[in-house]
Amino acid sequence: MLPMNFYNRPDVLTIARELLGKIIVTRFDGILTTARIVETEAYAGITDRAAHSYGGRRTNRTEIMFGEAGRAYVYLCYGIHQLFNIVTNEKDIPQAVLIRAAEPIEGIPAMLQRTGKKNADFTLTRGPGNVSKALGIRTAHTGHSLMADEFHITADNYMPARIMISPRIGVDYAGEDALLPYRFFLKDNRYVSGKMSGNIYL
DNA sequence: CCCTCGATCAGCT
DNA sequence: GCTGATCGAGGGA
Length: 202
What we know:
By secondary structure, this protein is of the alpha+beta class. The protein is 13% helix and 30% strand.
């Protein structure tokens, strides 16, 4: 289980990159599901026009971003989808990493049931809405500590072969901040959402 | 392959 | 009343 000192660091870009290859574990209502993170985006806080916390804006929804690191920020997007973020950095520095895609490992039958999909194809956990749905992560989990048995991130000896970097997806409203290279993903991984094009980072 | 469109609600104006 | 850190279905090339 990743400890507080993984999340409570000043550089959200480093954390977003290092989350690639880590494993999300949920055991809600006794149902175990795990998936390896293959795509993330960094949201850099009050100076980042794409972030909900841009300009230091606080609402009931974003309040958790201003809290301590290592907690879940799950918000409702387009009124339908529940997007899972991990809060980073110190209290009052409202940064987070969005989990955009993952590769299923354990509990695929439960993921199929939660998503209503018939087959375990690449769309099962492709895209942030699908990741949350498959793993059972909902807005009610906002504020949940990620240092808990039933919901946490863990590491194994997996080493990502090649990491790609690109601008973030769906943030055109953010002006020139939409061009910042804050999206990280594993090269050639079929679970990655959106465009697979980007620059080789490592 | 590409495009458009509807779903549905928190937060802002 | 409008927009958004989305998704999947449907239609055309």
